[in-house]
Amino acid sequence: MMNFEKIIADIDRWIANEQEKNSYSDVCKRCGGTGWYLVKNTNPPYPTVDKEKCSCYDIIANGQALSGSGINESYTFDNFNTHKPFQKNLVTIAKRFVSSPTHWFFVGGQIGSGKTRICKTIVRELINKGMSVVTMNWQDDSTDLKTLSMTSEYRHELDRFKTAKVLYIDDFLKSGNVDQISKADKELAYKIIDYRYNRPELITIFSSEHYFDELLGIDESLSRIEERCTKEFIVNIKKGGENNFRLQ
Looking at the chain, which terminus has fewer C-beta neighbours within 10 angstroms, N or C? Predict the structure, then answer.
């Protein structure tokens, strides 16, 4: 028979220890800078420890999004190179998106043309507006998720990307050729996009080495991106060495 009194005593001791440890934090005395704190739940059928989001969660998450993405003060629209017409057009569209961030944003095409930089500039602007952002590097994070797919951690990690107020996916479905995109990558993309598509309050930003029409050729379910971006916020940068500024 379960000894509820002992369980409650253990829970109280655990929470007290956490509170003591957090009290030394320079970030937050309540959560210790993690964004979460422990609470006791005595509802039936038995006592448990739950986590609740701290009031400083969004501040911490935004700081992590900036530092984890290498986004610093240089990521501004004024610092974006606009020597070519496509660059000026990209900045104009990005500024319009930031002014009223209610849609999705997609930029695809030439490698080295500034796609990641403009997206990171958008992310920095949204964070400065107080919005919580999660960044996903498709190559690294999709690999990690697929590795975790048979573990208990998988749902937690996947939910981090599915439920973020703003999600930026860098190098979406990256591959040398669209024909090389795996079934597992397509299924993962669908899970994230479909969840977010059905929740209008969630904003998604994509950069990709593929044109948007190429992605539609991979899987028509990706038309959800077009619907949420509308034509206004889909930008394709012509592929060609003249637009690869890493070579210039």
Answer: N
